[in-house]
Amino acid sequence: MEIYGSLSEQILDKVEGRLGVETEKLNELAKVISGMESDYGANLHNPDSTAKGIYQFTDDSFQTAKNRLKNVLGYSPIRITDAPTINDLSADDQKALFFAHLSEDKGSDERIVEYLEGASSGAELYVQDHYKGQPTEATSKRMDKFFGPGSSRIKYYLED
Questions:
Q1: pLDDT tens sequence across 73-93
Q2: pLDDT for residue 155
Q3: Strand pairing partners for 57?
Q4: Does the pTM of the predicted model rise above 0.85?
Q5: How many helices (H) and strands (E) does the chain have?
Q6: By CB atoms within 10 Å of each CB, which of 34, 58, 80, 147 scores lowest?
């Protein structure tokens, strides 16, 4: 097996091959979400939950992301498999886990393509495939800051 590029680039290449669309723009989404979740890596532990790292994976979602990375690539580097917490990994390894987790989430393909084609801000992708729940008031305010006014008022949640 030939290994090329960073781990996050390898994930994007696989997703691009599967979806048939250029995925480079997902790096912009990763930057926005790292800002939302950890102030771009400045706050690597949430004192109110088990969430850690640049993208604030909980202990359970960290394990899920490891499994999804292996599903996407067909292998998982030992440094990731054996990492006790996401904070033990490099920024690129965390981004690779973020991309794998996002792209392997049930139903995310359509939202990824909409984002990549410019039909959405990425807010829906964030809420449904990363945050995975109805945003709190504080999260909604942060979403407005990072995704633009009104972005957190997602139709999916207004219909509930």
A1: 999 999 999 999 999 999 999
A2: 41
A3: 52
A4: yes
A5: 9, 0
A6: 58
Q: How many Å apart are CA 32 and CA 38, to the nearest integer?
A: 10
CA dihedral of 114, 117, 118, 124, whole degrees rounded to 10: 20
Sign, CA torsion 121/123/125/126: positive
Q: Which distant-in-sequence residues (6+ apart) come within 8 Å of 100 by Cβ? A: 11, 65, 68, 69, 71, 72, 73
Rounded CA-CA distance 95/89 in Å is 10
**Segment 1-37, tens digit of pLDDT:** 445 689 999 999 999 999 999 999 999 999 999 999 9
- In contact, 98 and 55? CB cutoff 8 Å: yes
DSSP, residue by residue, 79-144 = HHHT-SSGGGS-HHHHHHHHHHHHHTSTTHHHHHHHHHTTSS-SHHHHIIIII-SPPPHHHHHHHH
Whole-angstrom Cα distance, residue 29 to residue 31? Answer: 5
For residues 45 and 107, the answer to whether their CB atoms sit within 8 Å is no
Q: Name 49's Cβ contacts closer than 8 Å, sequence gap at least 6.
A: 58
Contacts 24+ apart (CB under 8 A), 131-137: 134/160
Give CA–CA dist 59/52, Å, rounded.
8
